[in-house]
Amino acid sequence: MNQKSKFKSNSFRFLKWSVVIGMILCLIIYFSNKRIKSEYCDFKKLDNDSIEQIILFKHELKQLDNGVCHIRKDSVILTSLQIRRFVWQWNNSYPVGPHIYRPLYTLTVKIKNGTMRNFRIMGSTVKENSDWSYKFLFYNSLFESIWKKE
Fold first, then answer.
1. How far is CA 9 from CA 6, 12, 29, in A?
2. Which of 106, 131, 101 is nearest to 119 (CA)?
3. Fewer beta carbons under 10 A from the terminal one: N or C of the chain?
4. Rounded to whole angstroms, how far apart are CA atoms 45 and 125?
5. 116-122 and 105-111: which strand pairing?
6. CA-to-CA separations, 150 to 74, 80, 117, 124, 128, in angstroms, rounded
7. Which long-range contacts (CB under 8 A, 24 or more apart) does 65-72 make?
């Protein structure tokens, strides 16, 4: 066996094992992400007919003279059309992973059976119970438009 064929044989063997190891790593990453998603993903759909009322709270940070931040919370009760829009957006949102942020809005959903669900909103990203975030499919400034109308 000459030097060139030995080099080709070794480089082919290296390439073959690199591909195999790469595929194994991809499978490990895929299944570990799937496991993490199933453990921490807390998505539950909303039903339009079961909702009694939705209240939207706006958070505003204001710097006071003494250096203390003040959080002001104003609220708006959503109309039935706005409720349907939010429910559609939430039910069609997709998970994007954990995020930590200070919400611009908090949404409280009062269900007819007496339970409540709270959502924290920052732009098109929404969280419910944990820091696992969901992104609206079609973000069209839903909450900003609701706030400007009021």
1. 5, 5, 30
2. 106
3. N
4. 16
5. antiparallel
6. 11, 15, 23, 20, 24
7. none
State which H helix or E strand residue 48 sits in. Answer: none
Q: Which two tokens stand for residue 144?
A: 């900003």
DSSP state letters, 123-140: TTEEESSSSEEEE-SS--
pLDDT in 10s for each residue of the chain, 150 residues: 555 555 556 666 777 777 778 787 766 666 655 445 444 566 789 999 999 999 998 877 666 666 666 566 788 899 999 899 899 999 988 888 888 888 888 889 999 999 999 999 888 889 988 888 888 877 667 777 776 655
| C-alpha span between 84 and 135 (Å, rounded) | 17
CA distance linking residue 27 with residue 39, whole number of Å:
18
Euclidean distance between CA atoms 85 and 69, whole angstroms: 33
Per the structure block, which two tokens stand in for 4? 């060139």
Of the candidates 92, 122, 95, the one whose C-alpha atom is nearest the C-alpha of residue 36 is 95
Q: Which two tokens stand for residue 13?
A: 């063997």
Spatial neighbors of 66 by CB under 8 A, at least 6 apart, are none
